[in-house]
Design goal:
Elements: H1 4-8, E1 20-31, E2 42-53, H2 70-83, H3 89-101, E3 106-115, E4 123-130, E5 150-154, H4 156-159, H5 164-172, E6 178-182, H6 193-213, E7 217-220, H7 223-231, E8 235-238, H8 241-245, H9 250-254, H10 258-269, E9 274-277, H11 280-289
Parallel strand pairs: 5-6, 5-9, 6-8, 7-8
Antiparallel strand pairs: 1-2, 2-3, 3-4
Length: 291
């Protein structure tokens, strides 16, 4: 990666001394790609990172605690790969860059990510970023500002209840954000491929049916949409396909259904347990507890 000229172009006389941390030819296996044939297939990725550091106020001597560790580069890449299944190398590179540039010691970086299995060549992307282009802090993928929402599983019986809006009133009364997770069909055995897509689409349809019952509902497909719905004090209704398909755990992508899937989502949100909004009797118990 020949980037030395670019790195030195704007340095003042006081900053002629530049420290860079290098990670070269780091190889990882990961599932990534937008095409159907790239689903459920791990590809070989190669990472090359050059990080320019903020000049130290004083010499660090030979103290390992006084420098940014090489392990930080490796751990950052591993964390991003573990957090979410992505379609694009460009998105992967941006996620890694944002996390590294949130470290105070880092002011500039160049990052190259390549796929090595797509042919007798390498396909990849290279980005260059400075600290002012990155977010000030990188939150956890599903971290939500403010109080963690209450996740409520809505089954078919609840969806057909004529008093559904009143039950939503009870959920919202304590003032805690609420996320509704639809459960549209009886759970069946392990699924995958076409059957899994059919199940997820059924949940998407159920989400829109819920939203059609109450104007306060907003269907959300991503963490960003969820935060916006919470900020607007709306009832968020989770349409799960996008988040489930991007999960790194094959169990989540292919098998979790119903309450188990809602519990996984609640855990990612820091919401704890899941409340079921089932038959009418269950609604009365829910109203009495205020949760």
């Amino acid at each position: 990666m020949n980037t030395q000229a670019d790195f030195r172009r704007d340095l003042s006389a006081r900053e002629r001394a530049v420290d860079r941390l290098l990670l070269g030819d780091y190889i990882r296996k990961a599932e990534i790609g937008a095409f159907g044939e790239e689903r459920d297939v791990e590809q070989t990725l190669r990472f090359n990172v050059m990080v320019e550091l903020v000049p130290a106020d004083a010499p660090v001597g030979d103290d390992v605690d006084g420098i940014l560790s090489y392990d930080t580069l490796v751990q950052t890449i591993d964390t991003v790969l573990r957090d979410e299944r992505l379609d694009l190398l460009e998105t992967l590179a941006e996620r890694i860059a944002d996390r590294l540039l949130a470290i105070p010691a880092v002011r500039h970086l160049t990052l190259r990510v390549e796929k090595l299995d797509r042919g007798p060549f390498a396909l990849g992307v290279e980005i260059e970023r400075t600290a002012r282009q990155a977010v000030a802090a990188v939150p956890d993928l599903f971290a939500i500002r403010g109080e963690a929402p209450l996740v409520v599983l809505v089954d078919e019986a609840a969806l057909g209840d004529a008093r559904l809006s009143e039950r939503f009133d009870a959920l919202l009364a304590p003032g805690r954000p609420v996320v509704l997770a639809p459960c549209s069909a009886p759970e069946r055995g392990e699924t995958g491929g076409v059957d899994r897509q059919i199940d997820l689409l059924a949940m998407e349809q159920a989400a829109w049916r819920i939203a059609g019952r109450d104007a306060r509902c907003r269907v959300i497909e991503s963490r960003t949409e969820l935060q916006h719905a919470i900020d607007q004090t709306c009832l968020a209704v989770w349409a799960p396909s996008r988040i489930v398909r991007r999960a790194t755990d094959p169990k989540v992508r292919d098998r979790l259904q119903g309450r188990a899937l809602a519990e996984w989502f609640a855990e990612r949100l820091g919401a704890g347990d899941v409340v079921e909004l089932g038959p009418i009797g269950a609604a009365h118990r829910l109203d009495a507890t205020g949760t």
